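Friendly challenge for the regulars: who can give me the structure tokens for this chain first? No prize, just bragging rights.
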Amino acid sequence: MPPSRPQVRAANELGDFLRSRRDAVTPEAAGIRTWGTRRVPGLRREELAQLAGISVNYYTRLEQGQSANASDAIIEALARALDLDDAERVHLFELARPTPATRRRAARAETANPGAVALLASMEAVPALLLGRRNDILAWNPLGRALLAGHLPAAAPADPASRPNLMRLLFLDPHTRELHRDWSEEAGLAVASLRYVAAQYPDDRLLAELVGELSMNSPEFARLWARHDVRLCSSGTKRLHHPQVGDLDLHYEALHLPDSDGQRLLTHTAAPGTASADALALLR
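First reply, four minutes later:
Bragging rights claimed.
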């Protein structure tokens, strides 16, 4: 029988996240003076509770999933005590304030935004993909495919049953692994970004199945998922080694489409006059 809740929202995601962040904060960084040997790598529960200005008993209930009514002030206090960045803070609120349970809609494949597809076609000099919230590749332009997935058929995104998924490619496809000069860094960012999205769509069965599939088939994914890192990866640099044109350092932007339920354009550009710009022109 299927599980009563998706794997992306485990029995106590909030507690798991709080514990992972608590373990990441050293007493020294929090301004806590310690003596002797400590049995925990980060803050103790009582230390975090003191920093946040709440009782140890209440924090323990929160971490154990026994309290679902934390106020905004308490969540903010915990975020400050744990020194969370903006993405982690949003994630904490998502976990502490889950969407009320509703009748789950039948899982269905995403449909590419027509306007975004037309925009992709017009961007002949910019490698670009249209991604769904689960990282399915809903569409790509020729240069986007040539850059990131030239070994796949051009029409692959058109078939919902077999369209490529950027996470599956990154962890399960050897061609994609070889494409990234810093594969470990890219993998960590990708999983942290997926963790951020998973909290926003806790009842997405297909997203849950993707997490389960990758956890079963990639020990590296399972290890990274268990770290509970959270990032909103909207821009940055990709360091690639393309089999046809060699090394490229490309700036990427993830442009989220309004009213598209998580769809985003992923674009790649090279600084003018650089070797990467020449390589991109050659690939085109």
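Strands lie at 128-131, 137-140, 235-242, 246-256, 264-269. Confidence is low (pLDDT under 50) at residues 1-11, 101-106. Your move, everyone else.
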